[in-house]
Amino acid sequence: MIHDPAVTDVREQLRKLVREVRHRAYVPYSKRPEAVVLLLSDGSWIPGVRVESASFSLTIPPLQNAWTTAVALGRRDVVAVVFSEPPDAGTRAFLEGLELSLMGVSADLFVLRSAELAVPCEPLAPFLDQMPDEPPEGIQLAREVATRALAPYSRFPVGCLLQLEDGRCIPGVNVEHPDWTRTLCAERNALGTAVSYGIAPSTWRALFLSCVNDVRGTPCGACRQLLAEHRSDLSVWMDRGSKNPPEHMRVDLLLPGFFVLQ
Ligand code: THU
What we know:
The protein has 262 residues and is of the alpha+beta class. It is built from 7 helices and 10 strands. 44% of the residues are buried. It binds tetrahydrodeoxyuridine. GO terms for molecular function: cytidine deaminase activity; identical protein binding; zinc ion binding.
């Protein structure tokens, strides 16, 4: 495999892709952009970039960002991961926790054992097929998206959609990890996907959220902070169960006096 020129070529193409998407990283504090690309079995691929937060520990690492995008899009058929920077021990531990059976072939590249690497083609589109017109439709779709959640530890599936001005919707679900601290919520999942695909916050219209087991569910504090840092006037619609209309709140009203670094 190592001496096969076609395989070497795929690796070089993956490295090129990760270099191309790295500039999308939101790194106003460290100024150190980082990215990963996940190659899927059919050659489509998913970018993930580092998204820093003024509330530093809420920073989303690139691998977690890309993996949670894959789960929300219902595509866990990852056959290779390429990093813009060789992953540190924590990132390698995160990768192992995903149980994808990936094996390191060089410092920056991990591939599925015995898989033939597809030639990278187009990025996987990060959108749902449907475009809801009214808030109740958006909420219904968020409930359906929640079925993709990976929540074996909490058994608390969450689904959301980040709708853009043009009507398209980026899905988000919560994605749990054996190391609970490396779990990501549905809302930050969708936000991280938008940033990784270079979709500017000025084009975000609304977020629809359904915590299917809890009719009083709201975004957690960490999600409120990240949303506020990117789009503090974003509309959030929250599921209040099938007997009630969804509740509407702006992000800056969900987190008055949120922290910013000017
Ligand atoms: N969760 C979300 O996805 N969004 C929120 O705003 C609240 C919490 C998820 C994270 C975790 O998987 C589970 O719900 C329990 O915290």
